[in-house]
Amino acid sequence: MPKGDFLGEFEIYVLLALSQLDDQAYGNAIRREIEARTGREIAVGAVYATLGRLEDKGLVRFTLSSPDPVPGGRARKCFRLTAAGGRALRHSTTMLVRMMGLDDAKAIR
Amino acid sequence: MRKPSAEAKKTRPPVLAAWLVGRAAPPDDRADVLHDLAEGFDERVAERGVRHACAWYRRQALRSVVPLASRRLLRPRPSRRPALLAELRADVRYAARRAARTPAVSLAVGLAMAVGVGATTAIASVMESVFLTALPFPEPDRLLRLGTAMRQLGEAPEVNALDARDWAQARSLDGLGQYAVQPVTVRLDGADAPVASTAMLATAGVTDVLQLRPVLGRGFAPADFDRGAVGVIVLGQRFWREAFGADPGVIGRSVSFGSGRATIVGVWSDAADRFPAGGADLWSPLTWPDDSFLNQRGSIALGAIARLRAGADIASARAELTTIARRLATAYPETNAGRSATVEPLQQAMVGPVRPMLLIIALSIVAVLVIACANVANLLLAQTRERGREFALRTSLGASRGRLVRQLLAESLALFAVAGVLGIAVAPALARALIARYPGTLPLAADVGLDGRVLLMAMAATLLTALIAGGPRLRALNRPALAGDLAEGARGLIGRAQRRASSALLMAQVALSVVLLLGAGALLRTFLQLSAVTTGLDAARVVTMRITPPPSALETPERTLQFQDAARDLAAALPGVERAAHAMFVPFAPGGWHDGYERVGAADTRPNLPMADFHMVSPEFLSTLGVRIRKGRDLSASDMSGGAPVLVVNETFAARAFPGLDAIGKTLRWENRTWTIVGVSADARHGSLWDPPDPDVYVPRAQVIRDNTWLALRTARPAAAVAAELRSRLRTLDPAAALTDVRRLDERIAESLAAERFRALLTGSLGSLALLLAAVGIYGVVSYTVSRHTREIGIRMALGQSRRGVLVGVLAGIWTTVAGGAAIGALATRLAAPIIEAWLPGLRVLEPATLLPVLGLFFAVATVAALGPARRASRVDLVDALRVDA
Fold first, then answer.
1. Which residue, among B713, B716, B646, B718, has the nearest Cα to B679 in the 3D structure?
2. φ, ψ for residue B845, nearest 5 deg
3. Angle CA B408–B411–B416, to nearest 5
């Protein structure tokens, strides 16, 4: 991600949630993770919209998992963090820490 | 925590919220979003119950709509538009490949549609030129056509010259002109061949009313109408282009014009080609000598047009003219009693006579187009079912129904775009052919072409055909039994809805064809009836021609008669000519003298005089024409000017004037003389084959001398040869005499039927075409039905039905459909009959004589068309039919 573009707050949450979930998760899992950690109800639509934007920026990608073995079962999107996504996340959090003055240059994970 | 209850398991999320989210979400994510929401819903139902779950769901929906929708709108799409276009291109290419695989069928379909669209466009452009385009004169809606209404004779589109001058005084009128259209021979000095042309003889009023302007030279000048003025001619523009190659050097050239000479002084703008209908080749001033019959109040011979004064309307013009006519009736009771003026807008008067025919042509063409579309529709319907497997496959690979519909639409549009383009290309030629073949002249207000309105009509026709033909199969796509299709392939049983659509199309085709054929049959019957009418004349052996006496012969009546007798004698002396006679008019040529007479001793007074047609003839006339004398004697040479005034009348006259008595010896008063009847002849037709014979009176020419001269020759030789010889001999008699309009009598009679022949031919052709198309449609549908029903047939035969039984079964099926369609067609004809018979008087559309043959023909054709497939059905191999897999 070019320097100078900033990630939005919710985009950072989504990326963080992904990184907490071993780098890959379904949309619902991401939502639940953010809900659990923030304690706020998160709209499914917001999660997917953000994931879409992140995918445009190349920070996440998804694969279609095999459909559920039920009639009318659809393939579901399984999202993962890309290498660029990981870098962007680390960059953003580093910037955050510096802004807050917590100059502990310890990288996330 | 509540135990999940049986109801909870079946609980669904709130439908509205789900729908809302579904709509807002980008299609890729829709499934995931809904799935996740459903998952969450189920969890909460299990945890806290339905109400809590629904509330959560709704909250989620509300808060998801905005992010999802803005994502959907804002995301940088790989632009949809090119995808659609690429899709379209691919579809069209695919359609082309498929069409190429069955070239015969595709070609037939394409051609049929192209001709259909082309014909429809052609008739539309003709009708636009006739009905929807205004005449190219200033303020054309203020132009009027005047005529005369007479109490006994009805209405005529002509006027009396003196009456017209009186009518011109009306304040509502701003100008009035009179005219006559005549065939005239013209020869340029230095050119070897004379040209037969149409001359418009007009008073100055005509050019004023129409506000004609010359594009070259000048128009009429007041001096041109003076007595003794040198003849002038103004050329019509079309004639100038065709006969003189648009050479500006024609101005000032001198020509021989009829029996005199004239100088070309100008060329009109092309507006002059629109009046009279069809356009006159040249215009010349209309003048007549004082002693001409035109100066008598009794003659009604000239056409008249007028222009409404600004501020006046037709009603006021009519009122004024009625007043004037009444004044004239009082002043001239002998001639003008019961006479009044008719006033009609000019374009309406010109267009009225052709409206019925053009409408019939248009409707017939559209009917054929619809039948052709129905054929194509059935064909495409059948194809679509065959492609069931293809569609099933594509659906399983992810194509939406919308995508399939778009593909079928693209195919239809491609086919019909091709048809449309071809049709539009062909239309001008078809229009020109129609105009050329039309019996009579079409009053075109402008050149027939493809302007915006007509092109729009053409596109509408194309679109309509695309919809009619492509429509039914789109509904066939509705059935989502696609899994079944995948498995069964093409052998499955036909869907009932599709079968019904097919039958409905077929019935519609049959109904329309039946209507067309009934109409054609009626017109054909009329034509044949008229052709079979006995004329009472020996038409195959009589040649008639018109003679224009030279000016020297017109100086006195005696000289005129001398010339006429001399011309007749020259003709009789020609080799191969048995007899010759001269007369004022001949049968089936323009002109006649309809007049009233008084029977001496009876109470005949104006205005209720008995009427008859008077024929001024030389003594040999009746024998030349082959008309036999029933009683008394024929006219003879001794009935000359000085002799006793005698007449020969025909049987109809004798029966009407003196019923039950012997007409010989009876006397009449006519033309201020008392005449004695000396002979009764057989009836002969002089002009109309429709009505029964008129009462005719044959008057010795010598007693009533007029300069109108026609010759009748009895000869077996061809008309042209005889005319050429006569022409050269006439020139020795007097070089200023002219001989024109040479025809054999039977040709003239045939020409008088030209309109009926044209109608019968055109509707007959269209009806036959419709029948052919319907037959093709029947063949196609039965073939297809049989191929789809193979298994069913096999089962039936296995259960004992004979091959003949199968055959009859298939035929019975088609007969039912045809019977249904024919019934609808006959009923429709019955309902429309009053309208059609109003348009074309004398036509009876639903006579048993036409109905039975048409129905019989239809059943025969349907049976023949269905026989092939039906036989195939009866020959089905049992083993093949009962096989389970495709």
1. B646
2. -85, -30
3. 125
Tell me the two tokens of residue B292: 């001409």
Hey, are the CB atoms on A48 and B71 less than 8 Å from each other? yes
Query: Is residue A57 within 8 angstroms of chain B, CB to CB?
Result: no
Q: How far is CA B407 from CA B22, B501, B696, B766, in A?
A: 26, 21, 74, 34
- Segment among A97-101, B15-19, B481-485 with least mean pLDDT: B481-485
Q: Which one of B35, B40, B63 has the shortest CB-CB distance to A46?
A: B63
From the list B36, B59, B71, the residue facing A49 with the nearest CB is B71
User: Chain B: which residues have CB within 8 Å of chain A?
Assistant: 21, 24-26, 29, 31-33, 35-37, 39-40, 56, 59-60, 63-68, 70-71, 75-76
Q: Residue B236: phi, psi to the nearest 5?
A: -75, 150
CB contact under 8 A, B24 and A45: yes
List, for residues A64-96, the tens digit of each pLDDT value: 877 666 665 667 788 988 999 999 999 998 888
Question: What residue in A sits closest to B75 (Cα-Cα)?
Answer: A53
pLDDT in tens, B583-637: 999 998 877 888 888 888 887 776 677 888 999 999 989 999 999 999 898 888 8
Other C-beta atoms closer than 10 Å to the C-beta of B244 total 16
Specify whether the CB–CB gap between A81 and A15 falls below 8 A: yes
The number of C-beta contacts closer than 8 angstroms across A and B is: 66
Predicted complex ipTM: 0.86
3-class secondary-structure state, position B352: helix
Whether residue A36 lies within 8 A of chain B, CB to CB, comes out as no
The alpha-carbon gap from B488 to the nearest alpha carbon of chain A, in Å, equals: 22
- The pLDDT tens digits for B88-127 are 788 888 888 877 877 777 777 777 778 888 888 888 888 8
- pLDDT bin (cut points 50, 70, 90) of residue B886 is very low
Residue A43 and residue B36: Cβ atoms within 8 Å? no
Contacts of residue B39 in chain A, CB cutoff 8 Å?
28
- Of B223-237, B381-395, B481-495, the range with the lowest mean pLDDT is B481-495
Q: What is the pLDDT of residues B523-564, one digit of tens each?
A: 888 888 888 888 888 888 899 998 888 878 878 888 888 899
Whether B1 shows a pLDDT value over 50: the answer reads no
- Chain B contact present for A93, CB below 8 A: no
Q: Is A62 on the interface with B (CB under 8 A)?
A: no
**What whole-number distance in Å separates Cα of residue A51 and Cα of residue A17?**
12
Judged by phi (left if over 0) then psi (alpha if -120 to 50, else beta), residue B343 lies in beta
Q: Cβ–Cβ of A77/B29 closer than 8 Å?
A: yes
CB contact under 8 Å between A52 and B75, yes or no, is: yes
Q: Which residues of B touch A49 (CB under 8 A)?
A: 67-68, 70-71
Residue A68: predicted pLDDT: 62
Residues of B in contact with A31 (CB under 8 A): 36
In 3D, which of B742, B637, B585 has the Cα closest to residue B196? B742
Contact A48 B32 (CB under 8 A): yes
- Per DSSP, the residues of B5-64 read PHHHHH----HHHHHHHHHHS-HHHHHHHHHHHHHHHHHHHHHH-HHHHHHHHHHHHHHH
Summarize chain A as % helix, strand, coil (round to 5).
50, 10, 40
> What is the distance of C-alpha A60 from the center of its chain?
7
The confidence score (pLDDT) of residue B491 equals: 40
pLDDT tens-digit map of B242-277: 888 888 888 988 888 876 788 999 999 988 988 888
Cβ B71–A53 below 8 Å, yes or no?
Answer: yes
Q: Which residues of B18-29 are buried (b: 16+ CB within 10 A; e: fewer)?
A: bebbbebbbeeb
- Nearest chain A alpha carbon to B67: A46
Confidence of residue B869 (pLDDT cuts 50, 70, 90): confident
